[in-house]
Design a protein that fits this description.
Rossmann fold; 6-stranded parallel beta sheet; single chain; hydrolase; helicase; 3 domains; Helicase_C-like; P-loop_NTPase; SNF2_N; 7-stranded parallel beta sheet; alpha/beta; 730 residues
């Protein structure tokens, strides 16, 4: 055996050791997270058990336990029963060994359930040594990033492949080994050396040794300080929580992650492999499933609730198809999120991006056709571009797809034409239907005519269960509460205000004129004596004192103007105490400027207020810097409110979100709130998972115009103004 063979074995051994070392470094980093997590999780479990009354043990044992004596002894929670143990329980008068055994068995079952379900929340405002240790441990893996994870996977696979030939080649590692080996061992050793040489040459040419070395360095590099770790956590909390869920094994319910799809579809999606070589971000389990669903089903609606990362899932699909050799992709979105889409694709993938918008859009389109990449354009601009040839575009992504639910609209027709010429289409919307299932069916028809027709002429009269089963081949929806176990709490408060005399007078004038929109904003018509404005000032002031950022939403630009003037003039609520006021962000603000306003708002280190028109800012822009949301008035569509709140209460939010909806008693607000509840129930039954199977949309639906007219007439009657025929609502 010559020197060359020995050197080959040595090269293989060095690469094998480097691969094992990296896997070990990664394993230790993961174990550090588990070690930091365990005491926090145990404490959370104990808090939960200490909050469960001992009477719950009756439910577990179907009422077979008598617990009166136990409660009288001072053991009032499941946690206290477990802590007491069998000896103390047996000392309670009237409690025998059989009861003790049953009681403890029931308590342990509850404990196991809590242990599996309880989630650890990291309080960014109250860092403690235990949470700091967890954040620091997670920081190592987050900072190392997906490239390190890929390197670990390659290292693990390589170590497994190299181990057998290295063992067989052991006689060739020394000068005397081959001399004392038998013929069979020598032959096996020579074959093993050849296998090692092929493997090592292949991996060295691919640059694996350097990748392993860099990954090991990244895994050994911790944050420079506790403060740096916390700052990074606040900036990238979604990535921290994603890793935490993966390492802890406390992932969301599998059925919820898969959108409660039928088994045959879910199984087909699960088995599809997702290429991540062109992607720069890790996916959560439900996000990977969403991307696979789009790839497996070809033309789909991704209807995930706001804040679950639909954009990331779309980028994962784009990256996978690019890795397979597809060269051209098109993203169509509202102008307000054009910049956001461009940023996300550039930062989350290795794909080239072209903005096909503005006066030079046709030149940009020609360049995109020639060079490829992801073209990002608006609904209006798409109408001016020729439809692609068959197979030319690898994927058409349509963001806020509910914007094309009207088949008679030109933008809808343009999208339908492109969808027809593309093999793969991904519609994205958190609100696939707002008032009528028929509108959702219009979207489905662009993707799969057979599925759309299967819904029938009526609005899914068989109910929501049948509806969801019928659209399962093209429709996937998950809700925040089902898949984001770490999302901070959402507290929604209806702030009912008694109108001032001045408010009442302005309201009566609007009712007399039959002006529905003026009725909705009458509470702000006379700012000096506005009850709603007074409450809004208080909310902003309190948020500022707590260092929190606030977003104020209204449907009306003039209301936002009044709010701005009021906050600017208030010595205790605006710039005088350091609270910066941004906006108003309205539909007339150019798309790029909208994103800049949001960025500036988020960049302020202390409290700040962002004023935003709900239909302009409730879509696409991420405002998780804010933890207080104010809705100046109820909206006609419940989805407008859902979208607005979800701008702040979304993946990446690290603080509880408080939503304040300002409402005036005795008038239009009360009537709208009741009708909104009906519309929300419809939405929950059909667009979200629901067991409601009897209701049909027509039973509760009213159009916006009819709703406005009905409210005007009812208010005129209530205030004794009948006989005055109102004009059509504005």
């Amino acid at each position: 055996m010559g020197r060359g063979e020995r050197e080959t074995v040595a090269r293989g051994a060095r690469l094998h050791e480097a691969a094992r070392a990296l896997a070990g470094d990664h394993g230790r980093a993961v174990e550090a997270v588990r070690a930091a997590l365990k005491p926090m999780h145990d404490a959370a479990v104990q808090r939960e058990l200490d909050a469960i009354p001992v009477a719950r043990l009756q439910d577990v044992t179907e009422g077979r336990l008598r617990l009166g004596g136990v409660e009288k002894s001072g053991l009032r929670t499941v946690g206290s029963v477990l802590e007491a143990g069998p000896y103390r329980l047996r000392q309670i008068p009237g409690v025998g060994q059989r009861t003790v055994d049953r009681m403890l068995a029931a308590a342990r079952r509850l404990s196991e359930a809590v242990h599996e379900s309880v989630a650890v929340h990291i309080d960014v405002d109250r860092p403690e040594p235990s949470t700091t240790a967890l954040v620091r441990a997670l920081h190592v893996l987050v900072e190392a990033g997906p490239d390190t994870r890929r390197a670990v996977d390659r290292a693990t696979a390589l170590a497994e492949r190299l181990a057998p030939p290295l063992a067989d080649a052991r006689p060739a590692a020394g000068r005397l080994g081959m001399l004392v080996a038998g013929r069979e061992k020598r032959a096996r050793a020579l074959a093993a050396v050849t296998a090692i040489r092929v493997l090592v040459d292949e991996e060295e040419q691919a640059g694996l040794p350097g990748l392993l070395a860099q990954a090991s360095v990244d895994l050994l590099r911790g944050p420079p300080s506790d403060v740096a770790a916390w700052v990074d956590f606040e900036l990238r909390s979604a990535e921290y929580y994603s890793l935490l869920a993966e390492i802890s094994g406390r992932s969301p319910d599998a059925a919820a992650t898969e959108g409660f799809l039928p088994d045959e579809i879910a199984e087909r999606v699960r088995t599809l492999w997702l290429d991540d070589s062109h992607r720069r971000v890790s996916l959560r389990g439900y996000q990977a499933f969403g991307a696979r669903f789009a790839l497996a089903q070809h033309k789909v609606v991704l209807g995930d609730e706001m804040g679950l990362g639909k954009t990331i899932q779309a980028i994962a699909v784009l990256a996978h198809l690019a890795a397979e050799g597809q060269s051209h992709f098109m993203v169509v979105c509202p102008a307000s999120v054009l910049v956001n889409w461009t940023r996300e694709i550039e930062s989350r993938s290795a794909l080239r991006v072209s903005v096909l918008h503005g006066p030079d859009r046709h030149d940009a389109f020609a360049d995109w056709k020639g060079r490829g990449g992801v073209g990002v354009t608006t609904f209006d601009a798409l109408r001016g571009f020729p439809a692609p040839g068959g197979g030319e575009v690898g994927l058409l992504v349509v963001d806020e797809a509910h914007s094309v639910k009207n088949p008679k609209a030109k933008r809808s027709q343009a999208v339908a034409l492109w969808a027809e010429h593309c093999e793969r289409v991904l519609f994205m919307t958190g609100t696939p239907m707002e008032n009528r299932v028929a509108e959702f069916r219009n979207l489905v028809r662009m993707l799969d005519g057979d599925v759309a027709e299967s819904l029938g002429e009526g609005d899914a009269p068989a109910g929501s269960v049948a509806f969801r089963k019928a659209v399962a081949p093209v429709y996937l929806r998950r809700n925040q509460e089902d898949v984001l176990t770490e999302l901070p709490s959402l507290q929604q408060t209806d702030e009912w205000e008694e109108p001032s005399a001045s408010d009442e007078e302005a309201y009566r004038e609007a009712v007399r004129a039959g002006n529905f929109m003026a009725m909705r904003r009458a509470a702000y018509a006379r700012p000096g004596k506005s009850a709603k404005l007074e409450r809004l000032r208080e909310i902003v002031q309190e948020a500022g004192e707590n260092g929190q950022k606030t977003v104020v939403f209204s449907y009306f630009k003039d209301v936002l103007g009044v709010v701005r003037e009021t906050l600017d003039a208030a010595p205790d609520a605006a710039p005088a105490d350091g609270t910066a006021v941004f906006g108003p962000l309205t539909g007339s603000v150019p798309a790029g400027r909208r994103q800049q306003i949001v960025d500036d708002f988020a960049a302020v280190p202390g409290p700040a207020v962002l004023l935003a028109q709900i239909q302009a800012a409730g879509v696409g822009l991420n405002m998780q810097a804010a933890s207080v949301v104010v809705l100046c008035e109820p909206q006609i569509k419940p989805t407008l409110e859902h979208q607005a709140v979800a701008r702040a209460h979304r993946m990446g939010q690290v603080r509880p979100v408080c939503v304040h909806r300002l409402l005036a008693t005795g008038g239009v607000d009360e009537r709208m709130v009741r009708m909104l509840e009906d519309k929300t129930r419809l939405f929950d039954a059909y667009a979200r998972r629901s067991a409601v199977a009897e209701a049909t949309p027509d039973a509760v639906d009213v159009s916006d115009t009819e709703l406005a007219r009905r409210i005007v007439e009812e208010e005129q009657a209530r205030l004794g103004m009948t006989g005055e025929r109102p004009p059509a609502p504005e």
